């Protein structure tokens, strides 16, 4: 590269030596920040209005500039690869827009950079990008949660074992299990919404580090871009990437939830459990073993969530120890965010339909929930209701279970006479207290699996997830 070739850069004046060619290619961010074109144009229009208000542009010049910026956006198309290939000299998205604007409206374009720096621009573009991504992710999550609620409603009073330590614990409604994921998703939405509130401030007017060198009314650009106001400190605003950190951390937590769901479904679809039959529409076969139907979708969910966790990790390590204010390192914070957004979007595009396609084997689930003494806790509760101290009741039922194990009988198959041999507190009403229904309904607390509680929880979940209730989450 000759020194003349530096002259189309945004910073060429001070330089006499050409850039090392390999370095020049390597440091360019345009191949990935091309994705910020719409945000860069929106932020540039807002800045144009702010500098016009400060007397830098006449009304006519402002109108030309706004028209030119719209033209840059419209003429660039949506094929990013083609846009990048067509502008090999563009260093980054800021440089690209300035070059295109110059082609569109001539040297007036060069006034746009008055009173601004790329440091505040990239901070603004990324905030706009993340804000949109948060809205899209929250919308996708709401759809997934509603699909789970629908599935839970269809499951009615179907039961399954719950597990602790991966050992059968107590029977629960299938709907109750599905609502556990709805609770996780609602927290994910709330984390995203919360991060959005905190990040919704506009860096424009912060300059390179110390604030704009023009007496800009910063409220103008903030308002134009739908921010709640300008950021409070120029050094922070140009180097702050907390919003990327929070956003990717929220997505990482979502990824953790998604991978738990994926793992449970993968396990439950095995022949060993047989709780569900994964739809062929989301499975593939084995090239070697003709009998197989592999749970590719859930396995890929489990795998893709690693990328979400990875993005959050990259952002933390990137920002850790970075001195104030802007440092070029921050350019490396973009790609993990883009990847996380694409990964979450890809997942959420399919997850609701996949969730609706799930077919449970309720009979198998019921057998698993009604064998193996899952009503032992209800049985102990019966004794404690009769005045036996719970610790003692626990021990007595433990002995009854042992008796059952030795003789191959469930609790309800042991005659009263034998039970009374272990405790005089047993009465005829014992058998009614350990039926499946009683075992469910004794958990009659809010958040419990009693049938009436789950029915109410489903109604409440639907209400919270309705589009008009969005603000509550
Ligand atoms: N591409 C850069 C980034 O992503 C834009 C800001 C560059 N600023 C600078 N002073 N070189 O961070």
SSE sequence, one letter per element:
HHHHHHHEEHHHHEHHEHHHHHHH
How far is the N terminus from the C terminus? 55 Å
Structural class by helix and strand composition = mainly alpha
DSSP strand tally:
4
List the uncertain runs. none
Any idea what the shape is? elongated
Radius of gyration: 31 Å
Number of helices: 20
The side-by-side strand order for the widest beta sheet comes to 1-2
| Helix content range | 55-70%
Can you summarize the main beta sheet?
2 strands, antiparallel
What's the pLDDT, averaged over the residues? Answer: 95
Write the layout of secondary structure elements.
Elements: H1 21-27, H2 30-33, H3 37-53, H4 59-76, H5 80-86, H6 93-105, H7 118-155, E1 159-164, E2 167-173, H8 174-199, H9 218-224, H10 234-239, H11 242-268, E3 276-277, H12 296-319, H13 334-357, E4 359-360, H14 362-370, H15 376-385, H16 390-407, H17 416-422, H18 430-433, H19 436-441, H20 451-465
Antiparallel strand pairs: 1-2, 3-4
The structure holds arginine (ARG).
């Amino acid at each position: 590269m000759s020194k003349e070739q530096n002259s189309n850069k945004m910073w060429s004046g001070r330089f006499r030596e050409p850039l090392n060619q390999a370095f020049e290619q390597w440091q360019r961010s345009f191949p990935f920040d091309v994705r910020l074109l719409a945000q860069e144009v929106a932020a540039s229009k807002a800045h144009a209005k702010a500098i016009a208000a400060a007397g830098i542009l006449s009304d006519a010049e402002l109108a030309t500039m706004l028209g030119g910026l719209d033209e840059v956006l419209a003429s660039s198309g949506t094929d990013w690869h083609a846009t990048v290939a067509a502008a090999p000299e563009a260093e980054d998205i800021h440089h690209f827009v300035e070059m295109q604007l110059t082609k569109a409206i001539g040297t007036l374009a060069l006034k746009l950079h008055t009173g601004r720096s790329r440091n505040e621009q990239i901070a603004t573009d990324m905030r706009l990008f993340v804000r949109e991504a948060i809205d899209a992710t929250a919308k996708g999550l709401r759809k997934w949660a509603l699909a789970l609620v629908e599935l839970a409603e269809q499951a009615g009073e179907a039961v399954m074992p719950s597990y602790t330590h991966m050992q059968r614990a107590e029977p629960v409604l299938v709907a109750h299990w599905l609502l556990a994921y709805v609770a996780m998703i609602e927290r994910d939405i709330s984390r995203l919404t919360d991060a959005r509130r905190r990040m919704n401030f506009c860096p424009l007017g912060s300059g390179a580090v110390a604030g704009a060198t023009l007496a800009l009314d910063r409220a103008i650009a903030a308002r134009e871009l739908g921010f709640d106001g300008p950021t409070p400190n120029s050094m922070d605003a140009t180097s702050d990437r907390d919003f990327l950190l929070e956003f990717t951390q929220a997505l990482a937590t979502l990824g953790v939830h998604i991978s738990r769901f994926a793992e449970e479904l993968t396990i439950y679809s095995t022949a060993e459990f047989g709780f569900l039959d994964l739809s062929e529409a989301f499975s593939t076969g084995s090239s070697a073993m003709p009998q197989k139907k592999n749970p590719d979708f859930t396995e890929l969910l489990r795998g893709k969530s690693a990328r979400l966790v990875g993005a959050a990790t990259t952002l933390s390590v990137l920002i850790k120890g970075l001195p104030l204010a802007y440092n070029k390192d921050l350019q490396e914070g973009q790609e993990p965010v883009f990847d996380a957004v694409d990964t979450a979007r890809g997942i959420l595009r399919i997850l609701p339909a996949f969730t609706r396609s799930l077919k449970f084997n309720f009979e198998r689930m019921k057998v698993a929930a009604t064998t193996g003494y899952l009503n032992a806790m209800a049985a102990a509760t019966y004794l404690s209701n009769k005045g036996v101290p719970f610790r003692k009741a626990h021990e007595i039922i433990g002995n009854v279970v042992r008796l059952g194990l030795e003789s191959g009988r469930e609790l309800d198959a042991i005659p009263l006479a034998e039970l009374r041999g272990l405790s005089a507190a047993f009465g005829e009403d014992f058998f009614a207290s350990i039926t499946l229904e009683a075992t469910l309904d004794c958990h009659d607390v809010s958040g419990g699996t009693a049938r009436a509680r789950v029915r109410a929880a489903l109604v409440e979940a639907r209400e919270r997830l309705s589009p008009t209730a969005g603000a509550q989450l």
